[in-house]
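Quick illustration for those who missed Monday's session on complexes.
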Amino acid sequence: MAVMNGPIRKAVFPAAGLGTRFLPATKAQPKEMLVLVDKPIIQYGVEEAVQSGVDNIVIVTGRGKNAIEDHFDVAVELESYLEQRGQTVQLEAIRKITQLINVSYVRQGEPLGLGHAVLVTKNLIGNEPFAVILGDDVIDADPPALKQMIDVYERVQGPVLAVERVPEEDVSSYGVVAIDASESLGRGVYRITDLVEKPRREDAPSNLAIIGRYILTPDIFGALEATAKDGRGEIQLTDGLRRLLRDRPLYAYEIEGVRHDTGNKLGFLKAVVYFALRRPDLGEPFRRYLESLDLKVGVGH
Ligand code: G1P
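Prediction with 1-O-phosphono-alpha-D-glucopyranose bound:
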């Protein structure tokens, strides 16, 4: 039987959001399927989980998200089409990810916040620790971000939240943690003393923002069930964790790597450029193209 402090086998991907920031692109297509070079955003997160040794993927979906299920399903017609034409590279590219993972889906029904999205996975997770990956945050890191967190979890044996220092003017977009900096737990690892969801700049306890990776223990479910809705009628994961902090220590970990927030347009564009430049087949010609641009030309010229 799975034990509360056993290995991390499951990763939850909340993916029920409406993606209104990317309309009209997301009118008939989930934002998780927007493409960075040639891979949907959600696949970056799923590959990170697999490379971290976590291959049970739980995706929290909602209306209009069928494309995600199709993407991680076997595409029989497409596969035989590619097979007949000997297009083995493409065949391998679409087969690889489906062969590596077991995917389960659970519907969120109503968009009642990130805490609620985690809560609807309760039966699928059961009594074991698990990861939560917010696909918007695409992290280029070696070892993969989730692997780094699992290593920390195995040492501290408690929930671990990924954090990153952000400019003070940005703290109100994030959950923000207060830490005990006097305790030495290893590079980038801190005990959390408090956490608050999207504080005003003047109320923020620090500029250490929670980014989209969590290792959680199953007692988070009880804490979320006991957590009141916020002013917008949503259950926030940060508020559930704040409640859990009464009962057990929580830890923050600064990931070593490059994070892209693909959930906003500028961050998305930066991520496309970043990953395209790193591609062996595209990097050089793309770099030459970028260098040829006259970047001094202003808007409207
Ligand atoms: C969510 C969390 C927030 C966290 C952020 C990271 O907010 O509620 O605590 O800092 O993800 O991306 P959202 O971006 O969904 O508004």
